[in-house]
Amino acid sequence: MKPEIIHESKIEKLPFWYERDFRNLDDRLKSRPILVLGGRGFGKSTLLRHLWQKQCRRVGEASIEFVDGRDDNAKARSQIKDARPKEVVFIDDLDLIWSTAAANDTQESLEKLKVGLWNLLRLNQPRNENFSCVASACIDVGGPSYQRLVESIQDTSLRKTALQVYSIYVQNLETYKLEPWRQAWEFHWKDGFDRAFSRKLGEKDGVLMEIWRSSILGLTGGHPALFGPAIRRLEELCQQQKGTLPAFERQLVSFEEVKNPELPHRVRVYLEDHLSREAIRGIKSSVRRLKDSPNSLEQRAFELLLEIAHHGTVGVLPPTGATVRQLLLDEGLVYQDLDKVTGNFIVPGSMIREQIVQIGEAFRPALPKAHIKLEKVGLEDAGDVIVNSGSGSEVEKIRLSGTSWRLLEALYSRRNSTVSKQDLQQLVGLVDDDKAVLNAVQRLQRQLRIHQLSKRISITSEYGKGYRLALVDS
């Protein structure tokens, strides 16, 4: 659906997290047609609509063609086939238009789409400095999603035409990658957040602003599909008259409440509830689609996704895993941490991780029933994890020592309950440091994976509360 023209005074302010990309794209509009490429939920459509509004004020709506491949795909295909050259062209979800046509249209209809796209992008004319074009897509050039779509087309002639259509925009559009987690992303995000809310939440010591900032970052991990709705809700709370808000919402943005030790927890629970209702649905659909897919590559992608979600991160994959990795990047379910030398792959935010783990519970392959117990080794700072089969005969004995043993023993003694970081510091004998417990847990999880126990002994974190150990299929 074509966006509605809005008077300049009523145009929604560009969200701060798109400011750099908006400036970059606006500067490049006259140089060459652009393809904005990014994962699902990254905000490509939002950027295109803000650029469209600006161009409408510059050159007038009559000089602009806006093709919306998301809300009305059939209309978008017809629009491309029948379009006449315009001064400025915007095509949202060009890959979706192409893939739907390739899967459903006839040979003749696909040929018309190819010709229409050729004319719309003015590829039959010399380069015109007065012409601008911006399109958006999720599917990377030559990536696995593209290959799967091509391979799904059985008709040889139809496949050839589909490849020709795709090559038009691959070869003639300059790629601009929309990457929410580019280097130093967290610094820029915090800077933008502070500028947006310094007057609304920035009391003298900034405690209230820090509570909201850390809660949003912890839950969303910087994923625009989640933190966008979270920030919009915070703006609504700040803009409404305090007297019109229910008491519990009024307390969430009240300077008088900053000394209440329960406030961080209340803010987090409130945000979780709001995002569960308003924002997480699309991400859940992407995860379920991978889990339920009959495609072997997508099944492997889900297994990797589940591994990353359970263990927090995974190192750079070998070349043989590049296809699977790209599937997850296309879906916007992981990102590569470019701020660190290792470049590990990470699931953004606790909400997405929890959704993946929950959906993955039904995916776990059945394990033979077993009984797991711990036995300390004499007076040594060590012990054994004993895994017995259902018949009672010993199957395996794994020796752990030092911090890993003490941590496992502490969590095992309180299994199925959440143990706070403070309690673990005392029980395990760790230094009073924020990262000491996290590092110890990660070392223990690595030990469990090495000994193939990670599917029987699950250790999960509960943000702001601590860690929980559960025995699986035992």
Task: Give descriptors for this structure.
474 residues, alpha/beta, five-stranded parallel sheet, three-stranded antiparallel sheet, 13 strands, 51% helix
Describe the structure in brief.
The protein has 474 residues and is α/β, with parallel strands linked by helices. It contains 19 helices and 13 strands. Strands 2-3-4-1-5 form a 5-stranded parallel beta sheet, with helices on both faces. It has a 3-stranded antiparallel beta sheet with strand order 8-9-10. Strands 11-13-12 form a 3-stranded antiparallel beta sheet.
Mean pLDDT: 81
CA-based gyration radius: 26 Å
The helix-and-strand class reads alpha/beta
Would you identify the regions where 5 or more consecutive residues have pLDDT less than 50?
5-11
Distance between the termini: 53 Å
Biggest pleated sheet = 5 strands, parallel
Helix content: 40-55%
Number of helices: 19
- Total strands: the figure is 13
Q: How does the overall form come out from the CA principal axes?
A: globular
Give the strand order of the largest sheet, numbering strands 1, 2, ... along the chain.
2-3-4-1-5
* Amount of beta strand: 5-15%
Structure description:
- The protein has helices at residues 19-28, 44-59, 73-82, 94-104, 107-120, 144-151, 156-172, 185-201, 207-220, 224-239, 247-252, 263-278, 281-292, 296-311, 322-330, 350-360, 402-413, 421-428, 434-450, and strands at residues 34-37, 64-68, 88-92, 132-137, 174-177, 335-336, 345-346, 370-376, 382-389, 394-401, 418-419, 457-462, 466-471.
- It is α/β, with parallel strands linked by helices and 474 residues long.
- The strands form four sheets. It has a five-stranded parallel beta sheet, sandwiched between helices. It has a three-stranded antiparallel beta sheet with strand order 8-9-10.
- Helix 3 (73-82) links the parallel strand 2 (64-68) and strand 3 (88-92).
- Helix 13 packs across helix 14 and helix 17 crosses helix 19 (434-450).
- The chain starts with 18 loop residues before the first helix and ends with a strand.
